[in-house]
Amino acid sequence: MSVKYIPVQWNPNKWVYDAVMLAGVAAFLWVFLYLTPGALSHEWPINPQIHNARAFGACAFVMLTVILCIGPAARLDKRFLPLLYNRRHFGVMTAFVALTHAGYILNWYFAFSSSDKYVGLLYANSSFGQIAGFPFEIFGIFALVCLLILAATSHDFWLKFLTPPVWKRLHYLIYAAYFSVAAHVSLGILQDQQNHVFTVLFLVGAGAVIVLHLAAWMQERSEAAAKDGAWAEVARINDFREGYAKIAKLATGDRVAVYLMEGKLSAISNACAHQNGPLGEGKIIDCLVTCPWHGFQYDVRNGRSPAPFTEKVPTYRVRLMGDMVEVHPDANPPGTYVEPVALPEPEPDLPEEGATA
Amino acid sequence: MSEKPFFVGYLPAPGPLRTFLLTACILLIAGLGGAGFLMGAAQDDPGPGAFRFDYGRQTVTGVVEVTPYPVIHVTEGNDRIKPGDSFMMTAGGKSGVDGRAMPLNGQLAQVSGTVLERGDLYMMQLRGGRNGIQAVEGDAPDITPEPQGRWKLAGEICDGKCLAGAMRPGRGLAHKACANLCLLGDVPPIFVSTQPVLGEEFLLVVGPDGTRLPREAYDHVAQFITAEGEITKHGDLLVWEIDMDTIEVTE
Ligand code: HEM
Ligand code: FES
Q1: Where are the domains of chain A?
Q2: d(Cα B214, Cα A163) in Å, to the nearest integer?
Q3: Containing domain of residue B113, as a range?
Q4: Same domain? B116 vs B63
Q5: Rounded CA gap, A125 and A79, in Å?
Q6: CA distance A172 to A146
Q7: Which residues on adjacent β-strands are paired with residue B118?
Q8: Which chain A residue lies closest to B249 (C-alpha atoms)?
Q9: Is the previous residue joined to B189 through a cis bond, with omega within 30 degrees of 0?
Q10: How far is B206 from chain A (nearest CA, A)?
Q11: Residue A97, C-beta contacts closer than 8 angstroms, at least 6 positions apart
Q12: Both B123 and B190 in a single domain?
């Protein structure tokens, strides 16, 4: 929740996150660059520029794979959520690693020629009509451009400027980048090499991304059991726990978080105004819904962040049908107050209505 | 009501979650290190080609022949390069020496530079300007190409310079764009035959009627192909005139 922008809002968890990520990247590169040449025992070594290019390219691929596994893993098991928390730094780092890969390639394979290296990159191989010998570099270029766009727009300023839904859609480019890298690798090095260990690792990585996404999607679908008709069922009264929410998926595809606070039900959008974090997976802290991703807070009755913050999320109407809690699928404008609906038997010793907000 | 561990970005992680995350972090770092090792150790041998700076600068005299790629047939050698040897030449980087060699076609010249060597194949990267190649006085013996008939060969078209050791790896599909760039710069193309032909594994490959390898052939650079064409022997070098219509991709 920001009243002004500072480059990065640091806190101890972000330091730990970045330290772990950098340690992993450093381990990969160090082992690839300095340990494996000894293990390879080639009579004449691979040119250092190509060895470096391969190390950075492979590292960028592995990093992208990890990034894309974190999302569905966190949806399947909430304990992975903290890994999602600072994923943007991971993404920016990947863009730099990929850029280094491209730099080594460009300054080696495409250097030493009388033509400009960027021109050479684009025209040297024009065999677009074939699989073996396809100019696979083009997929690398596309992926790199995507990664650079994502890195450049990763800051909160862009999130605010583009609005979270647009920003989130833009950041789906990561999937385009991943497909493109997969094509880059499949048409490039996989066709060339004799040793197939890399092929196996590539398939395992890409397979993990696909399987995890499918699993998370199936779990959500079975949970959501989206209903049409005007009011949408959320859950039975007994399923609610004080301070926590139940999430309902509307026929429109939007999600609603219905919170039980002080014995009363209120419904707000599940998408946090910060980065679309899942508000329904957060909990109430000091009478405020707290987003599990970066801790933005909202008053559950009107969807507003407490002053001096100005974030707002849409609210929804709630009603009870017997012991079934239902929400109306039409969202109220962000920040609209909705009277909370009391449960039939309020729990006995509740504290007085909180005075925050 | 049992409290599930709940993480807020700016607060310390609660106990059980902390153990889980610690494990995840250690696995992540170890996994990345392990992947680095497996991927790094899976790289193919790039082959024995290399610049032989250790041989020192080589200077020999011979007859220049434009095939159309310039070749020299040695008449006066040194302790490494013997009279009767024939080899191809390139300039520094991805360029040939056509401009300098063409005017000397059929004449005696002295060439000087660094040898690139891969098994039986070698060529010379000439020094710049006249230091690299210059006419010398004397009678140039006639070089008569000896026809060897029409052959069907299987193998791969490469750029001769990277193959001979300017780059390791210097062949293969991942290297194709680089190879094309060399060929565009007039570096001589070489056909690496899967079976020895008349005792040779490497042949200079040219287009029809003494032309350069046509640009259409670039689609097949680094692919495994079969094709037919006339082989002629120039000095001790085999030159294969590839018949474009007979190219077939194997695999
Ligand atoms: C301008 C952009 C790019 C260019 C020109 C490019 C070019 C290349 C080339 C020529 C190779 C083959 C190198 C060799 O082994 O001889 C290669 C391999 C590879 N590239 Fe790229 N690339 C680009 C971007 C990317 C990006 C963005 C990624 C991943 C995020 C990537 C991942 C890889 C991987 C994993 C390999 C295989 C490395 C190995 O052999 O272990 N590349 N690239
Ligand atoms: S998404 Fe960042 S706090 Fe909710």
Answers
A1: 12-223, 232-342
A2: 54
A3: 50-135
A4: yes
A5: 47
A6: 10
A7: B121
A8: A132
A9: no
A10: 19
A11: A25, A56, A59, A60, A63
A12: no
Tokens representing B69 are: 């790629």
Q: In which region does residue B49 sit, left (phi positive, over 0), alpha (psi from -120 to 50) or beta (all else)?
A: beta
Q: How far is CA A70 from the centre of its chain?
A: 7
CATH (residue range A232-342): 2.102.10.10
Q: Which residue has the tokens 């480059």?
A: A7
Which of B104, B135, B166 marks a domain boundary?
B135
The token duo for B4 is 């599930």
- How far apart CA A214 and CA B168 sit, in angstroms, is 41
One domain for residues B158 and B241? yes
Residues of chain B positioned with their CB less than 8 A from the CB of A188: 173-174
Question: What is the per-residue pLDDT across A31-55, written as a single tens digit (0 to 9) for each?
Answer: 999 999 888 888 899 999 999 999 9
Average pLDDT of chain B to the nearest whole number: 91
- The reported pLDDT for the residue numbered A3 is 44
Among B211, B222, B114, B243, CA closest to B176: B222
pTM of the model: 0.79
My answer on whether B115 and B57 are in the same domain is: yes
CATH number of the domain encompassing residue B67:
2.40.50
Q: How many residues does chain B have?
A: 251
pLDDT digit of tens for each residue in chain A (357 aa)? Answer: 444 444 556 677 788 889 999 999 999 999 999 999 888 888 899 999 999 999 999 999 999 999 999 999 988 888 888 888 788 899 999 999 999 999 999 999 999 988 899 999 999 999 999 999 999 999 999 999 999 999 999 988 888 888 878 888 899 999 999 999 999 999 999 999 888 999 999 999 999 999 999 999 988 877 665 444 578 888 888 888 889 999 988 877 789 999 999 889 999 999 998 888 899 999 898 889 999 888 899 999 999 998 888 899 999 999 888 788 888 888 888 888 988 988 876 444 444 443 333
What is the number of other CB atoms lying within 10 angstroms of the CB of residue B83?
12
What's the token pair of residue B133?
């190649």
At residue B160, φ and ψ (nearest 5 deg) are: -65, -30
Q: What is the least distance, in Å, from the CA of A197 to any CA of chain B?
A: 6
Q: At which residue do the structure tokens 């040779």 appear?
A: B200
Of the residues B135, B158, B181, the one at which a domain ends = B135
Ligand 1 residue neighbourhood (C-beta within 6 Å): A 50, 53-54, 57-58, 60-61, 64, 98, 101-102, 105, 109, 121, 137, 140-141, 143-144, 147, 181, 184-185, 188-189, 198; B 39, 169, 174-175
Of A356, A353, A166, A337, the C-alpha closest to A268 is: A337
